[in-house]
Amino acid sequence: MTLNLSFKLLPILAIVLGIASLVVPRFLNVFVAIFLIAYGLVGYGFIR
Length: 48
Fold this sequence. Notes:
Blueprint: H1 2-23, H2 28-44
């Protein structure tokens, strides 16, 4: 059940980071890096 909750949070995180990258485009690399790290941690089960 917690794993399903984590996967429901990823699309929300993607939307927030997408909007933030449109507002402040110079931080796009940082936003993408944070998203990829978080996605990887959830994928391996380190974050529930």
